[in-house]
Amino acid sequence: MRLFLALWPGPGVRAQLHEWAVSAHSECGGRVLRAQTLHLTLAFLDEVDPARLPVLLSLMQRTPLEPFTLTFDHLGYWSDRKIVWAGAPSVPDHLVATRNTLLSQWRATGARVVTQSFRPHVSLLRHARRAPSDLYPPPLIWHCDGYVLVHSVRTPRGPHYRLLAEHHSGQPGGQHDGFFETSAEKSAMPATQYGIVG
Prior knowledge:
single chain, globular
């Protein structure tokens, strides 16, 4: 299973990011990423043996992420990868600390962890021809209260993202509007704010 940890936006932020993507596409070309798949990758875990999934879920269960706010205020372009992306000028220290804790604990279980820098961004366009001329759209505010575990399934039409698990810091029983659910199946795990989604 190809897995990654991510921040998954709610419908309001997702719609605004998608508007940015559509606007940039008219000038830059390429492929607009589907609104329901827009996300900020915390860490790519690569191939994980399904038998080890309970270990990873247990690590997530005991590693919460305090709520925080991100402000996206600029676009960027990676010419080598042909990607137009949205970026934030800064991220909270505790977000980086939580990410590093998850990776170090996962490595301590014997998992292979590829050293990777953390460049917080949301990809908007792939195969873009150029950078947008307007790199500073009106700021977009994203209130985050948790993170998710995603299974990236390869298909002939590109990757399909299946949300496997969530960890929210909100009130028990709160709405998880940011999730793209593929079924109504839930986990039997006891934590109120944590469950299998797919």
